[in-house]
Amino acid sequence: MGDEEPEDTGARRVAAEARDRVRFEEEALELADQVYRVARRFVRTREEAEDLVQDTYARAFRSWQSYTPGTNLRAWLLRILTNLNVDRGRRIQRRPDETPLEENDYFLANKVAAADGEDALETDRVVERLSQDSIVNALSSLPHDFRDVVVLVDIGEFSYADAAQITDVPIGTVMSRLHRGRRLLKAKLAEEAMA
Amino acid sequence: MTHHAGCDKCEELLQGFLDRALSDTEYAEAESHLDGCDYCRRRYRFETSLRMYVKTSAIERMPPGLLEKLGALRSTDASAAGS
Predict the structure, then answer these.
(1) From CA A83, how far away is CA A144, in angstroms rounded?
(2) What interface predicted TM-score (ipTM) does this complex get?
(3) Most exposed of A33, A63, B2, B50 (fewest Cβ within 10 Å)?
């Protein structure tokens, strides 16, 4: 305030930091819809997803200084979200005795073709067979570790490397979980479609 | 249009192919097989549409009001930082 130029570099630094912080918050908020769409498929209900996203942003706004400008902010936010989701004790929900059946990659296509003929493999027929609900149910039936990676890569459009960073596992593990997760998803969809 | 030699290998390469994550050699192998195999070609196309359909089915927009709630969590107020 007043007519003096702020000579003090400390004051300038504070002002610069405040601007950086505002910019960070604005950029983070612009990504909210994309963060939500991943969160929504990590948990069962819309309310849980909203809570998770709010907790994520509360933590992100508090620890904004640990974000390195110029790096992938969306991945940084999802890393927080994934950690929070794990912290929420979802591991307790896991039933280790339940090992879903994994089939090969053509399994669903072969089932569809066997039931309705090869022409049923055309795009429109896939939609006829599988309702939107069956897709959502099949996704949520996957074991967490597999589902997280499938959601991040196939719905969140993250690269293998980003998904590895977000879930804190090596890239090879991401690839194997992704491949197995997709096969499990198709096996589940085959069950639904052929029921 | 049936399953024949080479289809098993082509099936193994499916995910990497669509993810653009194969080596040059594997790519060439998958492509040359697909050129001559209607059975696998249909299944690759099926997988492509399935992936797209899974994505569009699973995407749910942010509920109205959430953005405002997130905005309220901000610790700064833009006017304080100057322009």
Answers:
(1) 13
(2) 0.87
(3) B2
